[in-house]
């Protein structure tokens, strides 16, 4: 596991009041078996070592202006989210064969989840992927995504704590 990613995750989790959950080895194995794209070992280890699954965070996705700071809420994907967003829903269904896997969801229901290309090393960039661009992976990569973080280290370092907690939601 990349040490700068690990340190950024530890620092971020040290600030949250409501950590997520770790994805156990059996659950991770089940997820791996169901995915068309293979999650790298470092990512599986990150998710099984740290309680990231289901954590809410705010991230500066947009440009700030006078009335808006540019931050939007994201929820780090649980194993069910990784599977659903990568294998069952667009845009993931279209880009999975190109090596993308879901990292985070849009808890507002906007449908523009966040992905990383798992073949881009152990500290890959993070992309917001728009759901309404195309059903063709190459078109989505060209016209329907934008890089929001140069690396996972950058992603966790710039994230702001969002201790949103819905008491009716299973964590």
How is this fold's topology laid out?
Blueprint: H1 3-13, H2 25-34, H3 41-49, E1 56-60, E2 71-76, H4 79-88, H5 92-95, E3 100-105, E4 114-117, E5 126-129, H6 137-143, E6 145-149, H7 152-158, E7 160-161
Helix pairs in contact: 1-7, 2-4
Give short descriptive properties of this protein:
7-stranded antiparallel sheet, SMI1/KNR4-like, 7 helices, globular, 7 strands
What do you see in this structure?
The protein has 171 residues and is α+β, with helices and mostly antiparallel strands. The chain is built from seven helices and seven strands; from the N terminus they run αααββααβββαβαβ. It has one domain (3-161): SMI1/KNR4-like, CATH 3.40.1580.10. A seven-stranded antiparallel sheet has the order 6-5-4-3-2-1-7. A hairpin with an 8-residue loop joins strand 4 (114-117) and strand 5. The chain starts with a helix and ends in a 10-residue tail after the last strand.
Parts with pLDDT < 50 across at least 5 consecutive residues: none
Mean pLDDT: 91
Distance between the termini: 25 Å
How large is the radius of gyration? 15 Å
Q: What share of the residues lie within helices?
A: 25-40%
Number of strands: 7
Largest sheet: 7 strands, antiparallel
Structural class, by secondary structure, is alpha+beta
Q: H/E order of the elements? A: HHHEEHHEEEHEHE
The total of helices stands at 7
The outline comes out as: globular
